[in-house]
Design goal:
Elements (H helix, E strand, L loop, with lengths): L1 E7 L4 H10 L5 E8 L5 H8 L4 E3 L2 H6 L2 H9 L3 E4 L8 H6 L4 E5 L13 H10 L4 E8 L9 E8 L6 H26 L1
Parallel strand pairs: 1-2, 1-4, 2-3, 4-5
Antiparallel strand pairs: 5-6, 6-7
This protein binds glycinamide ribonucleotide.
The site of glycinamide ribonucleotide (GAR) has 16 residues, from helix 1, strand 5, helix 6 and helix 7.
């Protein structure tokens, strides 16, 4: 049995898609959702999807070993940041080499770094009149959006696009590719 742990901060559409993709796969268990926002909609999704969840705050993450020890206890095969916005503490990164991945809603190294998340990314892409954007799935290190790239997919952006319409295109790419990339990392790498 392969164990996946998910980290999310907000809406949770990626969490839902990953969970649905693996729902008929008896070799994969979504063991836990870690969430840093007690009001996040992803917590309601997790309940409906029967994924156990833990809510944590900054102190628990950065100043205590609570999250770290829970992760050691679960011993996941993959830790997936699926719309998670905080930097992962170095202790956790070092404990799980090549086992923590993140999805970013742009073609890194463009539009990455602190403060570049969700809608901020799409607004910048539109403001700069990019003709192409996309998604990047990458390993996580101690810097925002800087780890080795595993996968990218692109979509065209036109003059008519708004930040909202770019977000829709990006979510479609995430839905199409993120669960498959996770599947591949679990079973083929
Ligand atoms: C996703 O588009 C993901 O790529 C992005 O947040 C969104 C979360 O959506 N992640 C980042 O910006 C990380 N820097 P969701 O909560 O509906 O899955």
């Amino acid at each position: 049995m392969k164990k996946i742990v998910l980290f999310a901060s907000g809406n949770g559409s990626n969490v839902q898609q990953i969970s649905e993709y693996f729902s008929t796969n008896t070799l994969v268990d979504i063991s836990m959702l870690f969430c840093n926002n007690p009001n996040a909609y992803v917590l309601q999704r997790a309940e409906k999807l029967h994924i156990p969840s833990i809510v944590f705050n900054k102190n628990m993450f950065y100043l205590s070993n609570i999250v770290y020890e829970k992760l050691l206890e679960i011993n996941p095969d993959l830790i997936v940041l699926a719309g998670f916005l905080w930097l992962v503490p170095e202790g956790i990164i070092n404990a799980f080499p090549k086992k923590i991945i993140n999805i970013h809603p742009a073609l890194l190294p463009k539009y990455g770094g602190k403060g570049m998340y969700g809608h901020h990314v799409h607004e910048a892409v539109v403001a700069n009149k990019e003709s192409i954007s996309g998604i990047t799935i990458h390993y996580v290190n101690q810097h925002y959006d800087k780890g080795d790239i595993i996968f990218q997919a692109k979509c065209p952006i036109t003059d008519l696009d708004t930040a909202d319409s770019v977000a829709e295109k990006i979510h479609l790419l995430e839905k199409e590719h993120f669960p498959k990339v996770i599947d591949n990392l679990l079973f083929n790498v």
